[in-house]
Specification:
- The complex is a heterotrimer of chains A (357), B (374) and C (415).
- Chain A has eleven helices and twelve strands.
- Chain A has helices at 70-77, 105-108, 132-142, 148-161, 178-190, 208-225, 236-242, 260-265, 270-278, 318-322, 353-356, and strands spanning 19-34, 39-55, 59-63, 85-91, 97-99, 115-118, 196-200, 228-233, 245-250, 253-259, 328-331, 334-336.
- Chain B is 30% helix and 23% strand.
- In chain B, strands 7-8-9-4-10-11-13-12 form an eight-stranded mixed sheet, sandwiched between helices. In chain B, strands 1-6-5-2-3 form a five-stranded antiparallel sheet.
- In chain B, a hairpin with a 2-residue loop joins strand 2 (21-32) and strand 3.
- In chain B, helix 5 crosses helix 7 (188-200).
- Chain B is globular, with a radius of gyration of 22 Å.
- Chain C is α+β, with helices and mostly antiparallel strands.
- Chain C contains 13 helices and four strands.
- In chain C, strand 1 (112-115) and strand 2 form a beta hairpin.
- In chain C, helix 5 (199-235) runs antiparallel to helix 6.
- The longest helix of chain C is centred in the middle third of the chain and has 37 residues, at 199-235.
- The chains are: A alpha/beta (357), B alpha/beta (374), C alpha+beta (415).
- The interface between B and C is medium-sized, with 34 and 25 residues.
């Protein structure tokens, strides 16, 4: 399982850093049982053959609509849930590569400190019965830091790092606003010096005026601590704002993966293009640009044949109805799963110079 | 209960210049054990016929309470303590050609017959949670027909036909079949369309949409927004559109009301608000949101701090602790009032002269230094 | 607009407030050597806010609980009953089992607090005359003959919780040391029953037994419920299935016949202590099922909580997650639920004993005492025999009010 990471490695040039994490053919099916005898009647293909990689020090954005499987992918990577099949290759600091999907719960504990998570809900992710010190220091304690003064120093440093006052240590979560709680959650995630941080919709529960604070903080910390982010979100503008590269998912499948600029300026998958066109922009003069995508998201329990997107795709042909497209690299570092990727010329989003001056 | 009725004697073409709904200095407070929450504290705006007014604000800004106060559906413990809400109501509900009268909704009892007739027939609500809006034990069609029968003098058969028609109007395919389905059988997008159909079923002239697309995905959201725009143009319905999403507001609203902690910070046409915002809060908010049109991985300007808890709203201008233009002794001393800085563009900020709306140069040194450095 | 436009490059300053120098409102920031700029609003905390900020969960529960006046009053009542449970002898005026046929059906003696303008409590003595026709005793009170009451006087010696001995009693007749048969040397604050036993003293001991049965059977239920519910909810799978079916089975059994059968099966020869424990077990055997379900439900929902996942990702062991994160989260709910379960147990025990199937004489419980008031004739003649029923109502109400208060206060984060 440690024979390099060839399949998805881009062909030339683009790769500047080696991947920290590579996911290969990840599948997570949730069974649906029926009746007294709990007969298996169907499966929800929450994640259906997803392959992606995250380079050291970069932010990979994972974007899609609800039910596309983006959260399931992130939880499988952290082994919060067990994948049905596939490989999750993780490269440790010394270069050793391990398939996390093959580990059991006990073996997994050795890898926990290296990969941490930032949660969506700033209220549910902090135990209301613990003080901030207890919350942030718990990972330190369970990983062997028994001296309380040492932990206190460490927590103080972490709180300063995320822009909170060290005096807050004795307080309980109820004393904090959503944005502050999210900072506490980030401090906890950083306590063990992780190399990979999975952020699951970290700003979607926050007020608009607070979101930018948390996004800036994450950018800051990435620079300071050389963190690698897997950033899961449904909001394209947030993903664009923070990511070096972006993956787009649709009904359990990865449809496109490319650098942020390229993906937004020249999308190659019709779904990516449609998704971008549907985002309402804070600009009244853009009203004619916004386009809707007809139809509804397919059910992962009962996906269509061929390309899962074909019933909504205006470019669909016969081959789209019958054959499932594979994810392939059409230009260096640009992966698409669309039969017609090469021939389509899809409109992207131009960076608006006017609003930025 | 006093109901003031002023018969309106005006030529029909002039009516389009009269507001359909006027909210004046509306105040709605929550009286709780822990104290009084001034959820809505002096909100005024007009809804012109056929126009979309967007109310935008973050949590605790009072946008939903404003909506509930207009409809008089405030929860227990909340009360309208001041202000007038005047509706130009049709005397015969549901009849588009009916004569009109001015009704002060704040003078009606929330459970009065008249108020109940106004809700649904004159002002209809599109709620945020489409799942909760329909009962799971009745078909969607039956619930819509019930509304129609309540407000209009039609037979059951006619009501069914009206329901099928509005289903078709909101773009639901096979309306004859779908009308007999239960809400849980419909997908999220269809359910949202069914809710809109229900709101439209009695031909209201004012729709209040309370975060109608917050619970749905972006591609479906685009469909719903497009639908609302189309219906609004076809039927010349006025809409009060409430949301926290500046993008959605920019796409939908003709007029925008920006609220913060129960007060109106700025209001004006969408173009003015988005292209030429004058209030420091609006300016900062617009700068701080990431956009699909901006460069990736560029730090955003932020607004410091977080929104105060409504229990201890800051004195003076509620935004002052987070404002870069904060003037000590001014902003934290008294509340600013809305001043007209441009035609139909109002700002509530001490940076602008109350007399003529021009920008005052009485800025603090730091604020000036900051401006110079830019 | 000049200042509505920002450069597209890095904006490290953000919009950090520039105007905060007034130390009274905005203490200076230099104490924080911040590697990351502090976006916090300044520490404008009043003492009140600070107090709330560092208030633990239990403090918040207490703050909310104490706002509930009825619950607080009920707590005081329960605390008083608890004292009675621990030292019934202190409250008793005489031996609760002492019978005296000559003193049957003595009515309640009303306490007069003042004597000739002075605070000197007394009760009028009772005078008995036998009705020559029916041969029944007719008791009248003689206001002229005063039996003075003594507080904290000494009498027979008893053990306090097995720690030390005491002979102090709350109330007794002033001349209690004199001859036993002298009516003036005895007080019957709640009258006497058919066998001339003092109701007041009996009630003190009945309180001990009945309350203890309620408490112990709830404790046993809680232990069983926590254990089995916890196993069921945490591990899931086949063991969960077995426990759930067991709970369903136990809950589907009709309670009264089962209790009747079980208690009737207790050998008549058993000592009151044995019967006592048997009854608590019988009550607990079904009592744990509701609690077991609740605990299981909490475990199931807590397993999905983000903070539990966060602890797991931080490397915490299963045991630590259960002990540190899950159990503290539902302790307050469990306490509330158990408090609400106690009155059910008390009422059940009382009913069983009333029907002669629970505790049996010579043991004294509220139910046993109420047995004395089973026929209408006694009720008409001696209505004071119903006082145990009154105490049952008070105790059950108090437990319910405290339980409700706890349940409402248990989740201080609900708003």
């Amino acid at each position: 399982m440690s024979d390099g990471m060839q399949p998805l490695e881009p062909k030339a040039g683009a790769a500047t850093k080696s991947p920290l994490l590579e996911v290969r053919h990840l599948k997570k099916y949730f069974p649906i049982y029926k009746g007294v005898l709990r007969k298996l009647v169907n499966q929800v293909r929450a994640v259906d053959d997803v392959s992606l990689f995250v380079r050291e020090g970069e932010t990979l954005g994972l974007v899609g609509e609800s039910g596309c499987g983006k959260t399931t992918v992130s939880r499988c990577i952290l082994r919060a849930i067990d994948p049905t099949s596939g490989e999750i290759l993780f490269r440790e600091a010394d270069g050793r590569v391990t398939d996390l999907a093959a580990l059991d719960r006990r073996e997994m504990r050795r890898f926990r400190p290296q990969m941490q998570m930032i949660f969506q809900d700033p209220f549910g992710s902090l135990n209301p019965r613990m003080t901030i010190f207890e919350i942030v220091s718990e990972p330190l304690y369970v990983n062997g830091m028994r001296s309380k003064t040492e932990r206190e120093d460490h927590v103080a440093e972490l709180l300063r790092l995320v822009g909170l006052r060290t005096e807050y240590m004795a307080r309980y979560p109820h004393a904090f606003s959503g944005g502050q709680r999210q900072r506490i959650g980030i401090a906890r995630a950083l306590a063990l010096n992780p190399r990979l941080v999975v952020a699951d919709e970290p700003v979607s529960a926050l007020d608009v005026s607070v979101q930018a604070q948390v996004l800036n903080l994450m950018l800051d910390l990435q620079q300071k601590l050389n963190l690698t982010y897997l950033f899961v979100a449904h909001d394209l503008s947030v993903v664009k704002h923070i990511s070096d590269r972006v993956c787009v998912m649709y009904v359990g499948k990865l449809v496109e993966m490319a650098t942020t600029e390229e993906l937004f300026q020249a999308p190659r998958h019709p779904y990516t293009a449609a998704l971008m066109m549907a985002v309402p922009r804070p600009d009244p003069s853009s009203r004619d640009i916004i386009q809707d995508l007809p139809g509804e998201v397919a059910s992962p329990a009962n996906p269509p044949s061929g390309c899962y997107f074909h019933p909504r795709c205006q470019f669909a042909t016969e081959v789209c109805r019958t054959q499932t497209p594979e994810l392939r690299e059409i230009t260096p570092d640009h992966f698409v799963s669309c039969h017609r990727a090469e021939e389509l010329h899809l409109a992207g989003i131009k960076v608006n110079q006017e609003t930025q001056i | 209960m006093v109901t003031q009725i002023h018969p309106l004697i005006k030529p029909a073409n002039d009516l389009t210049r009269e507001p359909l709904l006027r909210v004046e200095d509306l105040k709605a407070y929550f009286f709780m054990d822990e104290g009084i929450v001034r959820a809505v504290d002096g909100v005024s705006f007009d809804v012109m016929p056929g126009k979309v007014v967007g109310i935008v604000g973050e949590s605790g800004c009072g946008k939903s309470v404003t909506m509930k106060a207009i409809l008089q559906i405030l929860e227990a413990g909340a009360k309208i303590v001041n202000g007038k809400v005047t509706l130009r109501s049709r005397i015969h509900h549901g009849d588009p050609n009916s004569a009109e009268e001015l009704i002060e909704l704040t003078h009606l009892h929330p459970n009065s017959r008249q108020m109940r007739r106004i809700r649904g027939a004159e002002i209809a609500l599109i709620p945020q949670e489409p799942m909760a809006a329909f009962s799971p034990v009745h078909t969607v069609g039956n619930q819509i027909m019930e509304t129609i029968l309540l407000h209009q003098d039609v037979s059951k058969k006619e009501a069914r036909q009206i329901a099928i028609d509005v289903f078709r109007a909101v773009g639901i395919s096979m309306p004859e079949q779908r009308i007999d389905s239960y809400s849980w059988q419909l997908s999220g997008g269809l359910r949202q369309r069914a809710i809109i159909a229900m709101a439209l079923s009695c031909n209201p002239r004012l729709l209040i949409a309370d975060e109608p697309t917050t619970a749905i995905d972006v591609t479906t959201q685009a469909q719903i927004l497009k639908l609302l725009r189309k219906l609004q143009e076809e039927r010349q319905t006025s809409i009060i559109f409430i949301t926290h999403d500046l993008g959605v507001i920019a796409q939908m609203a003709d007029e925008v009301v920006v609220m913060y902690l129960g007060m109106v910070m700025e209001k004006g046409s969408a173009m003015k608000i988005f292209k030429d915002a004058q209030h420091p809060y609006t300016q900062a908010l617009l700068r701080s949101i990431p956009s699909v049109q901006s460069h990736p991985r560029v730090k955003l300007p932020t607004i410091a701090g977080s929104i105060a808890h409504p229990f201890n709203r800051p004195k003076g201008c509620p935004f002052h602790p987070r404002c870069t233009h904060f003037m000590r002794g001014v902003c934290d001393a008294s509340q600013p009032h809305l001043v007209e800085v441009d035609e139909d563009h109002f700002v509530s900020c001490f940076l602008y002269s109350e007399a003529d709306g021009t920008k005052k140069m009485t800025k603090t040194g730091a604020a000036l230094a900051k401006e110079e450095s830019l | 607009m000049m200042d509505s436009i920002e450069p597209k490059t890095l904006q490290p300053e953000g919009a950090a407030p520039l105007e905060k120098a007034d130390p009274a409102i905005y203490p200076p920031d230099e104490a924080v050597a911040a590697p990351t700029e502090i976006f916090e609003e300044p520490l404008v905390t009043t003492q009140e806010e600070e107090r709330i900020s560092i208030a633990s969960n239990w403090t918040l529960v207490w703050w909310r609980f104490r706002k509930n006046v009825l619950a607080v009053i009920s707590t005081v009542i329960l605390l008083f009953l608890a004292i009675v449970v621990f030292i019934p002898d202190f409250f008793a005026t005489m031996d609760p089992e002492e019978t005296n046929a000559r003193l049957a059906f003595i009515p309640v003696q009303r306490i007069h607090w003042l004597d000739e303008g002075q605070l000197k409590p007394w009760v009028p003595s009772v005078v008995g005359k036998r009705d020559p026709v029916t041969l029944a005793m007719k008791w009248t009170t003689d206001e002229a003959q005063k039996t003075y009451i003594r507080f904290f006087g000494t009498s027979w010696s008893y053990s306090v919780l097995g720690i030390f001995d005491s002979n102090i009693h709350l109330v007794s007749a002033a001349k209690a040391d004199q001859a036993d048969d002298d009516l003036a040397a005895q007080i019957f604050l709640l009258g006497t029953d058919r066998l001339g036993r003092d109701q007041w003293s009996r009630l003190a001991f009945a309180t001990q037994i009945s309350m203890t049965i309620g408490m112990i059977s709830v404790i046993v239920s809680v232990v069983l419920g926590l254990l089995l519910g916890g196993i069921s909810g945490y591990f899931g799978g086949w063991i969960d299935n077995i426990i759930q079916r067991l709970i369903e089975l136990l809950q589907s059994l009709p309670t009264i016949p089962i209790w009747l059968a079980l208690t009737a099966a207790l050998p008549r020869t058993w000592s009151p202590e044995k019967v006592f424990f048997a009854i608590t077990i019988i009550l607990a055997l079904r009592g744990w099922t509701t609690l077991g379900r609740e605990v299981r439900g909490r475990f199931l929902s807590l397993r999905e909580e983000d903070f539990v996942l966060a602890a797991e990702l931080g490397g915490a062991s299963q045991a630590r997650i259960i002990v540190k994160h899950m159990i503290p989260t539902f302790t307050s709910h469990i306490i509330a639920t158990s408090t609400l379960a106690i009155p059910v147990m008390i009422v059940t025990e009382t009913s069983l004993s009333f029907l002669g199937l629970g505790m049996r004489p010579p043991a004294i419980s509220w139910g046993v005492m109420l047995q004395e008031a089973q026929n209408i004739q006694t009720l008409a003649l001696a209505p004071w025999l119903l006082t145990p029923g009154l105490i049952v109502i008070v105790a059950v109400l108090a437990f319910n009010l405290v339980g409700d208060g706890l349940r409402d206060a248990a989740d201080p984060y609900s708003h």
